[in-house]
Amino acid sequence: MALAPNPRHTPSLRGRRVLVTGGARGIGAALAELLAAHGAQVAVIGLEPALLEEVAGRCGGPWRECDVSDPAEVDDAVAGLVADLGGLDVVVANAGIARQLPVIGGQPGVMETHLAVNALGTFYTLRAAGPHISHERGYALATASLAAAIHLPLIGAYSASKAAVEAIGNTLRLEIRHTGARVGVAYYSEIDTEMTQRGFATETARLLTGGGTITGVTPLPTALRALERGIARRSRHVVAPPWLRPAVPGRAVAQRLAELRLPATLADAIELARTERVGWTTDQPSTRAARGPGSARD
Questions:
Q1: How far is residue 98 CA from its own chain's centroid?
Q2: Which of 4, 167, 281, 298 is placed for a possible disulfide with 98 were both Cys, Cβ 3.0 to 4.6 Å?
């Protein structure tokens, strides 16, 4: 069941022209539908045409199939959707992927793909949408992760890409401040989505965590409420679950605490990860293999 909009935020969201990447499933799709329920005009970008069409149908807005790691595709998709919407007030750079990777002995191309989709995809999206949201009501939200602030074993590629997202978002905030626009960075822990379920379904993850997650799985509505409030207020930070908020400014202490809680199975898990073959948390199209290990789609 779709989450009912909080009427407190409807006056700030009604009529806003919004673009969400990674809008075919998960947080992106649910957020698009929630914002549309507030009366926003929402456009979605992603790779799965059938799912995108369904989401767009529920939102009553346009959509485009787009590889966020391809700057030309991003430029074309953003330009087309901005024209469809008649302008742009909010962009949410949400598209992202994840996959386990030990730094030593990990599979080739995994680091490069993380950076191509998560970091460069965010950069291309914000670069293309930035001029359109550079006005008094404009807002851009870069989707990082708690992994940008606290770094754990076997997700170094994901952490590096999300730390880059954080840096891009913080930089854009300074560069467009004079226009009246604002920029936020989102930090999530493990949210109950298909992405999280796939990421923690590997043999390595089960050995490392005992079948659970590091901080526990947060219900999707908790993240959506944080996003709903953050977008309405054009917040600097969006954090879910909210009890993790002190970890962002207090990352040095949080990192040390994480290191002190490493499980006894860590060495065995790293060794297993070097040989375990797993997929991406978001399925990648077959054309990816032909384009080489450094290319990416999401």
A1: 10
A2: 281
Q: Which of 54, 53, 72 is nearest to 64 (CA)?
A: 53
Which residues are annotated as catalytic? 158, 162
Closest CA to 83 of 129, 14, 134, 127: 129
Cis omega (within 30 of 0) for bond into 241: yes
Alpha helices in 39-144 (DSSP H): 49-59, 71-85, 110-114, 121-133
Contacts of 167 (CB under 8 A, 6+ apart): none
What is the Cα–Cα distance from 48 to 165, expressed in whole angstroms?
23
What is the Cβ-side half-sphere exposure of residue 63, based on CA atoms within 13 angstroms?
25
Distance, CA of 73 to CA of 176 (rounded, Å) = 24
Alpha-helix runs per DSSP H in the chain: 10-13, 26-37, 49-59, 71-85, 110-114, 121-133, 156-175, 194-199, 203-209, 220-233, 251-260, 266-273, 287-291
pLDDT digits (tens, 9 = 90+) for 209-234: 665 555 677 888 999 999 999 999 99
Q: How far is residue 188's CA from residue 243's CA, in Å, rounded to a whole number? A: 11
Q: What is the rounded distance in angstroms from the CA atom of residue 142 to the CA atom of residue 58? A: 24
Count how many Cα atoms sit within 13 Å of the Cα of residue 203 in the half-sphere of its side chain. 10
Q: Which two tokens stand for residue 23?
A: 């809008």
What pLDDT is attached to residue 156? 93
**C-alpha distances out from residue 5 to 42, 71, 140, 153, 291, Å:** 15, 34, 21, 37, 42
How many degrees, rounded to 5, is the angle at CA 70 between CA 67 and CA 73? 70
Which of 47, 36, 33 is CA-nearest to residue 77?
Answer: 47
Record the tokens describing residue 75, joined without a space: 């430029």
What tens digit of pLDDT does each residue of 73-89 get? 999 999 999 999 999 99
The 8-class DSSP code of residue 281 comes to S
